[in-house]
Structure formats: structure tokens, C-alpha cells
Amino acid sequence: MQNSRSTNAEGIDVSRYQGSINWRKVRADGKSFAFVKASQGQSYVDPTFEANVRGAKEAGVLIGAYHFLDAASASAARLEARHFAEVLERVGGAAALELPPVMDYENNPAGLSKSAINSVAMAFLTELENVTGRRPIIYSGNSFASNFDASLSPYKLWIARYSTKPPYDTPAWKQWDIWQYTDHGRVDGIAGAVDLNVYNGTEAELREEFAKGGGDEEPMTNEEKAAFQALQQQVAALQASHSMPVPEWAKEAVAAAVAYNPQQPLLDVNGATSYDMYRLLVVMHRMGLFNKK
After folding, report:
1. Cys-Cys link to 33, which of 62, 162, 241, 279 (CB 3.0-4.6 A)?
2. Domains of the chain by residue range
3. Where does the pLDDT of residue 61 fall: very low under 50, low under 70, confident under 90, or very high at 90 and above?
């Protein structure tokens, strides 16, 4: 893989182990981006997650979040992805963060085969993108990343190798997007050691790639409007049937779908009662489609 350059944007990643962080000092020390731990497994939430997101945003640091994957099966991976998405809702969802959500997959305590590792990874990544509307990136150590096959190469790579020498090639990747090059860095505003990272580009390029603002959407076609009206009808039918409560993580999207065009009369439909429909609503809401005219 490629080596770093002096013009690469610099960043950090943190969790509860860094304690209270003075994010303004972090920014003043030249760090332009950060990933903060949000969750792990099916229930754990990092207690500093929300405070770190708020602090980083206020200081002008581009912020993203990561989930430490414990799953040993595809079904467990999907549950972890939903948990991660629900934790992200505490800060406005994945769309509220400048950087993509991250799958941190770096060990194999269950002794899975390479094929199973790839199945677990793909299940998590696919589910997370379905429920958040954002394409995740993959974090892993250079050695563990050798387990990933070419099916995962379309995902951007955040690689860990603690060395002055660049990471070595893996079956899925020949270059890195982000390189975590030490876990013993020192940064103003943080008491103690912290992971240091570089992005494969300048800060301006980082902002261009991940932190674009809205406003460039195409207007909806008549066909798209008709499809959304049909979806609105399904939501109304689902709510009327009371056959399945709206999950907490989907309520905002459901409300937006119902309000999308309140003057349009609802047609008779057979609404599908499933989490798949809720996930679809959340994805479209995160993309801002319910706000189009």
C-alpha cells in the first residue's frame, strides 16, 4: 500500500479511555477529523459518545462513529448493525455526522473460517447501510484484514499498522483511505495516549469527499412521487392495523413519510408489516427524500 505524505489530513480516534476531551485544543493541534466509539455488540454504548460528538462538532472537527463488532454469525451481525444505528440516533443519526459510520472488525475469538468472517462482515455492512442510508467503511488491523476477500474491496478501508512503514497489501485492498499509524500519540486536549491517523488526501479533499452539503438533489419525477404516495399509503395502513408497533428508531421517518403529502388521498393498499419497510423508510428519510417538493 502507499506511504503517507506530509500533506495528509491528520485525525484521531477515541473512546471512553481518553476521558474528557478538550476538542478545541485538539482542533488547534492540527487534527481535522476524528472517529469516536459509539457501541459494541448488541447492547453496549460508549458513555462518552454523545459528549464527544457534541464537542468535536462545536470545535469544527469532522466527526464519525465506529462500532466494535463482536458477532460470530450473520444474524448476530445484523442485530449489532441495528444497535449501532439506534445509538447513532442519539446524535441525529448517521446523516448528522460528516464521516461515514465504521465497522470495527479486528479479531476472531470464535475461530471463524475466512468464509464465515466475510459473511459476518457483509451482513453487518449491508444491514447498516439499509437502516442508515450511508455506506459504511471498514476498520481493521493489517494482519486481520488479510481475512477479507475481494467482495469487500468496494468499501473504503481504515487500516491499523503501527509503524513508519506503510501497511502491506491484502487480498481486498491495495491502498488505504485512512491509516492508523500509532496508538501512542500525544495531542493537546487529551490527557494520555491516543490513536493517530492520516487520511489519504488533504483536509480540503477530506471535506470534499465526505462533508458535502445538500442542495444538489434532482427534483422528483412524477413516477417517484407516485411511488412515495404508495409508500405513504402503506404506512397509513400499517398504523391503522396496529399489528406492529413502530420501533423507536423509525418513528421520525414514519412521521415524515406520513406528512410528505397530507393533501393526497390514500388509496387502498395491502401494507407490508415488517421491519424491512421501516428500514426502507429510514433510509429514504436520511436521504432527505421526504422533504422534496
Report:
1. 62
2. 10-210, 222-291
3. very high
